[in-house]
Amino acid sequence: MFKAAMLLSYQYNITIEGEFIGWQAEQTTGNIMHALNITCHAVSVSNVVGVVGPALSRESHVIAPFGETIGIPVISYSATDPDLSDKNAYPNFYRTVASDFETAAALAKLFIRYSWTSCSIIYQNDAFGTGGAYAISTAFNNSRLTVNQMIVFDIAILSIRGDLKSLLINAGTRMVVLWAESLYTSLILKKALDSDVVGPQFTWILSSTISLNSFNQTFYENLIGMFSIEPTVGSVINAPINATLLDAAYRIWQQYESESFPGSMNVDNFALFAFDATWTLIQSLQQLCASRINISSSCLSFIESSYCFNRHFIHSKLLLDAVSRTEFLGVSGPIQFSDNVTDRITGLYYSAKNAQPSSNGLNFVPVLEYFYPRDWRIPIKENVIVWPGRTLTPPSGLALLEGINLRIGVIEAVPFTIVEKVTNPSGQTTIKYSGYVPDLIELLRNKMKFIPIIELAPSNMSYDKFVQSVSTGVYDIAIGDVTVTSARREYVGFSNAIFDNSLRIIMRTTSTVKIDLFSFLKPFSRNLWLLFFGTLIYAGILIWIAERKDNEALQNRSILYQIVMSIWYSFGNIVGYGVDFEIATSAGRLLTAGLYILGLILVASYTANLASDLTIAKSNNIISGIDDIKNGKIPSNRIGILAHSAEEDYYLSQISNGVRNFYPLKTYDEIYRSLLEGIIDASILDNGILEYATNNIYCNLTLIGNDFDKSSYGIVMPQHWSYAQDLDMNILQLKEGDDLENLRQKWFEMQLCPDSSGTSTDIGIEAASGLFLVFGVISILSLLLFAWKKRQNIKNCLCQLIYRKGSSAETKDSMNRRSSRTFEHSQNHQITLPDIV
């Protein structure tokens, strides 16, 4: 098409200073020194005013600076390296093909369209390959996509650096972007086919379209579903092009080289880009010379030299300005350049093609089209996309566990993994697994279609060793009550959370209650009680002083009687009981008001504190939570910790400051047994396991306080595991579908032990025994007082019996008079029991 453009300029009678534009064609080989050599030779022997090409980016990095040196434009039609877009670095360079920055942006939008999140990139180690890989990484990063790895194809030795099979299989993605020239693309694909990493699990996207029929037919099934993304022309996506110019160019091609013309439908897009590059230079030269029509010197003047680097085009700046201003509708679409970049800024189109079987083998079929900077769309002539494996469903792009044999390590921990030995009728013993973990494995197996091979960890294996077994390759993954910690993440990876966890304290249940006979006195301190009784006596004396002469209830009574009754009056008003006589003086009433106020506060305070003390007394554990352990309420050697576990890490970092002063234990059963036997007083373990144990197995153990140090369990897997994203996605789906919550309810909400979690509101006899004992003592004293007060009556009765036996009536009368006086005197001075109480 370069020749067609030059010859077409002759037909259109485009001349410079009355002469047709001359041209010379050279074939480069990809060797940059060879490209520079033939360019230098051409410039040395003729007045070359512009270069169309070169085709390769690595050649353009040399020819473009050479063009700047001699002052001529270099217009490429297929060099796409993003670095060449820098106008400051390459001021004489232009191109009619889109930069790889635009190609990378189109690729990122294709990934977003099909919800692919990551890829591996294979690229050739030259300017085209490294520039394309950089552009893709930048575009993916801006779109929050991930490039998992970059694999280098060394064009010097025509080989992949590293083991291609292991690199792709161990990657977490099954999307492969191959960024290489057509020649290298075929070599890389052949190597990948031999390594069985092309379809149906892998989806390849090529940067260039190649002939697939050159491959062995046995690989056709693997090749089906591949994609290629290439810059295309406006006619492919029904965008405007210069059809008149294109038809004229085709006619010239057919006229002068009919044997090489492939047909208008098979002309390579880059040939059309080459035509527009040539036509851009032709029009720029025409504009330059037309603007200098009044200048006597030639518009194509050079500073002559036999050495190519010393030659220089005199009107270089004017010609470059003419190129930058050139704007026309070309055979590939609208052509326009910018002062800021070297790239074409209009008519940027892409086509995505899909490898599909046909009657003549395998062919790439257009399935999507792209108009920068918009989005991908389905062409007017729609073709169904056939994905790898001949499926019509787009792949996830992830490494899938489907059909993979998976060695899964489990560790016995009720109820996460319950291990039972089952003997069948023939006498053979097998191991049966049940619990949260086996149920979870079954849920994942049904969703992901892997083949589980469950292996039980030795009973004496610590949790840290269990986790390390994954990093050393003993298991592919490990599932159990394994806490995710930062220390473990240094050598293994973890999945999304499969169980929300926290730590809890477990202790023996204590059923004995310490009897305190005087617990009812605890609401007030000893000094307050002394002050209380002192106030009673003080107030009673004041009442006696104020009321003894004016109050009828106190008149004609002994002083002791009056003082006791006054103190009784003070007590009755303070406790709210009331008394059997009323105050008669103003001073007494004012004092009574003070007693009411004092009693209101004291009684309320006593009642509240007593209720609080009785409630606290019902909790007979020596600690109430983790803070008490941190404060040393339990000796360190009485605290049992599971050795080499997350609980040990917590104890060392949060409680003992790194000192191993705890009582080390190896298994959960050993911890429970040590608690029951009194070897230890408390232990710190995972809340889930403890809830199950105390609710269903060890009814005489109890949990103390609230949970703390919240964390989670995760499936242990190797770092950068290929299938990590697939596993995480399925775990997340189980969580969103409440499957994990259903498992938790199934295994952790059962309860066989009596419910001891609630606090009883009943107050036991022990808590109030002292109060009743004091009342018993008071009642005995009152009975004794009653008996003592009745002793005179008993004595009088005895005297009357004696006198009845006498013969003298006078004696009897005398005795009766004495007895009557004694009884009357006794009545006048008698203090009854109610008066005392």
UniProtKB/TrEMBL annotation:
The keyword Transport appears for this protein: yes
Organism, as annotated: Rotaria sordida
Record Pfam families: ANF_receptor (PF01094), Lig_chan (PF00060), Lig_chan-Glu_bd (PF10613)
Disordered, as annotated region: 812-837
One CC-aspect GO term: postsynaptic membrane
Residue ranges occupied by any Ionotropic glutamate receptor C-terminal domain in the UniProt entry: 405-750
Alphabetical UniProt keywords: Glycoprotein, Ion channel, Ion transport, Ligand-gated ion channel, Membrane, Postsynaptic cell membrane, Receptor, Synapse, Transmembrane, Transmembrane helix, Transport
PANTHER family, alphabetized: IONOTROPIC GLUTAMATE RECEPTOR (PTHR18966)
The protein, known as: Ionotropic glutamate receptor C-terminal domain-containing protein
